[in-house]
Amino acid sequence: MIPETLKTSLKARVASALTPREAAVDVMKELQAHYGWLTDEAVEEAAALLGLSPLQVEELATFYEMIYRRPVGKKVIHVCDSISCWCADCDKIIQHLKDKLGVGLGGTTADGMFTLIPCCCMGMCGDSPAMSVGGVPYGKLTPELVDEILEMERNNR
Amino acid sequence: MPKLIIDDIPVEVAPGTSVLEAARSVGITIPHFCYHPALAIAAACRLCAVKLLDGPVKGIQMSCALPAQDGMVVSTTDPEALKMRSLVIEWLMLNHPHDCPVCDEGGECLLQDFTIAGGHSHRRYQGKKRTFQNQYLGEGIQHEMNRCIECYRCARFYQDYAGGTDFGVMGSAGRVYFGRFQEGPLESPFSGNLVDICPTGVFTDKTGRFRARYWDYQFAPSICQHCSVGCNTSPQNFQRETIKIVGRRNDQVNGWFICDRARFDKGYLNDPQRPREPRLDGATCGDDVAVDAAAKSIAEFVRKNGADSLALVGSPRLSLEGMVLLAQLARAAGGARLCYFGDPAQQQGSVAAARLLREENSAYVRDIEQAQWIALHALDLIEEAPMLALSVRKAFLAGAQIFLVDGDPIPARNTPPFKYTAVESLDQVPFEKGGKGVIICGAGKKDPDLLAQIASCGAKLVMLQPGANGFAAGLLAQEHAASPLADLVAARQVRGVVCFEADVPEGLLSGLEVLASADWRRGPVEAKSPIFIPTTTWVESDGTAINYEGRAQRFQRSRLAGLPLKGLDPKYYGNATEAVTLHPPRVHREEVPGGAERDAWQVMAQLIARLGGEPVVEPLEGKWSALRSLDPEGEGIRIFEIVAGE
Ligand code: SF4
Ligand code: SF4
Ligand code: FES
Ligand code: FES
Description:
Chain B: This is (2Fe-2S)-binding protein. The complex is a heterodimer. By secondary structure, chain A is an alpha+beta fold. Chain A is 46% helix and 11% strand. The mean pLDDT of chain A is 95. Helix content of chain B is 26%, strand content 17%. Chains A and B meet through helix 4 of A and strand 7 of B. The complex binds iron/sulfur cluster (2 copies) and FE2/S2 (inorganic) cluster (2 copies).
């Protein structure tokens, strides 16, 4: 259940959109921020707010990789595995992240801090290989730089 | 009109026609999956590649998404196009489980056909295949997502065409998944069409899986008998059992699709309890014995009581052939009374609709689809004519206003796939003279004055009949001044009845003597009838039905009459005198077990002959003879001219 205040503000957001679908991503993101991930309950709440069926919300939710339909850690690491980053040996970076965090792709660290997810091109090809941690983008990654970033992000909660 | 050349054949097509459709018009089928004539173009599968050798566009193009233009020179056989198609089909097949032997689609599978036609016959991919968990989608449809090739036909049909909201596409890239938010029965009353529209075996008909292959079926063009829309179907039968019913295209009636009632509601056809044997005084007898006895009983009754205390009772379940012969039988019986309806209210409405509708005012399906406003008059459309809801939806999507006039609230399960405004009377429907409007109402049980008032509005009309062949019953009831049985009983005008596929409620029957009856199902009439003759259902008979708009359509016998082989009672292969069946059994029989049924009109013809009437060679005589040549695979014909030209 979401608090009334959130509900009211989301209703206003939906009302100001030309079509409800247009507001769907905003609504899902807000609900995700509230719950930590987009729970089944949140999908149904979003559907009710948007006048869509839960399935129609699910169609959108599962399309966007930054909407999480499973529990995630405090910060989500999106590491790019698209073509430019692949040319810049992102495989090595991904392997390093896995080793360092002790999780596979899709996994969350034991302390609940990080979830590691591969992602599509983030538009940082010029700085490939690239990743983002908790929404902050990082480029020109090397294993050493990754270690530093993780250290910093872990302390900087 | 664009003129182009496809594989050296000059083609001229209407503007907006795609190259794929233009090729099809000259008999060239370009392999395709996502393209479907009823759906918007998605160009999702990339299979329909052709090469344009000359003209305004050049090179490899997707033919489904390319409008034909003047001067195009298209090759469907160019090596580059062939190569493209074979590579596309190869990657569409990467994850396919190759499980045709255990897939119910096999043999009627577009994926099989176009995989071969596309030139992919050797698997090179050695990697792991992506697999999915299937969902429970209800008792009608089986889900097997691993067979999906991501053509999006199902999602486009379900949401865009049919307006369903509980099924669609989730995920992205290699993970797209077609299903529901959570497991559960599909909610759309058109969900069964997923079986027909999916080019692969993702959705198969759970009610008929693993019984037979395409090449085993006995099947023929038929007409759905669940409501008066008259959708075109093909019942697929195997060993005297209707296994599946699929939609059949008729652009004048149902387009490509049918509703779930048409597809899944078939148990009664295969019901082992269906009466299969002629009966005289409780004992099974030969067909001739029963017919002789019935003729004798009729003649005796008429001699004793006079012909006008006898009523021959039919119903809108009869084919037109049966209805026409019922009147002849009444004459042969010395002028017995005729009933096509039991309930006076139903007869009134049905007759009024048949009288009020003419070529000019009876709406075509395209009139509904292109209407600017549509009034549903006191009508639950999904209940009475499900497929028309899809036509109304087309109009709605094109901007038409829809009104529910004087209607009871529609139950949630019958929520139509369009928005409407509820108003109290027709006056509140803002229609301008000359605008394109359609009024849809149920005719059964409606006051004829009200129907006349509706008809005087100047809009096109849809008057739904009570029963699949209600229009014909209305026409014949009017022509022969037939009375509803309830009226005759109330006025104490009849004492005896002979019933043909008529459902007479017990209350009406109690004061009547049932001389004989013929039907394909059991009921109070059959229970009370000393002489009983089994008849065929629409799957086992040839006949004609007239739908709500006055369109006569021919249905063909799609299987032999007789008990389904599955579950056949051992008495048919056992020995009557031995307790334990000897092997091999040696009970000779000439007829198919339980196959003594004949079409109701044939029973009537036999009775007419026994009663000394004119022998019947052809049931459709006189004005109706124009319908003899009706093509079961055609669009049917509207009967207004035939009726007027009497
Ligand atoms: S969907 Fe078609 S190709 Fe696939 S298993 Fe079924 S029959 Fe075979
Ligand atoms: S389930 Fe069938 S219709 Fe739907 S996308 Fe897959 S192959 Fe196409
Ligand atoms: S490919 Fe990685 S950021 Fe573009
Ligand atoms: S049929 Fe043309 S892209 Fe699918």
